[in-house]
Amino acid sequence: MSVTGARPFLKPILESPGRQRRHTLPASEFRPLNPQDAISVFEIEREAFISVSGECPLHLDEVRHFLTLCPELSLGWFEQGRLVAFIIGSLWDEDRLSEGALTLHKPHGHTVHIHVLAVHRTFRQQGKGPILMWRYQQYLRCLPYVRLAVLMCEDDLVPFYKKSGFKVLGPCSITVAHLTFTEMQYAIGGHALMRRNSQF
Ligand SMILES: CC(C)(COP(=O)(O)OP(=O)(O)OC[C@H]1O[C@@H](n2cnc3c(N)ncnc32)[C@H](O)[C@@H]1OP(=O)(O)O)[C@@H](O)C(=O)NCCC(=O)NCCS
């Protein structure tokens, strides 16, 4: 049979997995990440950071480390089952960041250190970064032990985070290779709300 003749018979077979995917995978889903998501996370990081500056906020082993220790402080945005944007955080036990915050998770801390927010290249400039950050901030409000979220970013991203309600704390004491950062902070209102409600 010629290739052309075979096409009608091949077509349904080739299309059926696609159809199945559409039925089984939600169009859009937000959920905490887990260690199995580490490769997808790192692929986005590789393009977003390493190809630009040679550095990235979290290397693959660090992604796995935090997604094992504190998956509940991460949030992934999946479309048709594909990771399109994510945030990874861990707990820190001081208000300001220092070197140890890059690698440590302090389970009794009250500050969420946001290590990284990144959107897959093909999904940028669609408002996804701010939306994901907003959902993450709402989620953190439900965690009674969280008082602050802090992050370090390069100067050109300061306006971006200001729009999400972060305030500038000043230069960050951490430097990575030749890169310097501004430290920013967001106060989580959840614990105040819980205190008010607990009176009744
Ligand atoms: C930065 C990033 C998270 C923004 O997400 P996004 O979904 O593409 O954001 P949007 O394009 O919808 O932009 C929202 C606003 O941020 C601004 N913005 C987006 N990327 C920016 C950047 N790299 N630098 C400065 N401002 C930026 C936009 O101009 C826009 O401003 P506006 O509201 O005045 O129009 C995304 O571009 C990304 O993943 N970049 C690579 C990784 C990175 O740098 N992460 C942040 C450091 S951890």
From TrEMBL:
Protein name: Serotonin N-acetyltransferase
Family as reported in the entry's similarity comment: Belongs to the acetyltransferase family. AANAT subfamily.
Signal sequence segment: none
EC number: 2.3.1.87
Gene Ontology CC entries for this record: cytoplasm
Classification via PANTHER family: ARYLALKYLAMINE N-ACETYLTRANSFERASE, SEROTONIN N-ACETYLTRANSFERASE
Catalytic activity: a 2-arylethylamine + acetyl-CoA = an N-acetyl-2-arylethylamine + CoA + H(+)
A Pfam family annotated for this UniProt entry: Acetyltransf_1
N-acetyltransferase domain segment(s): 28-189
Pathways involved: Aromatic compound metabolism; melatonin biosynthesis; melatonin from serotonin: step 1/2
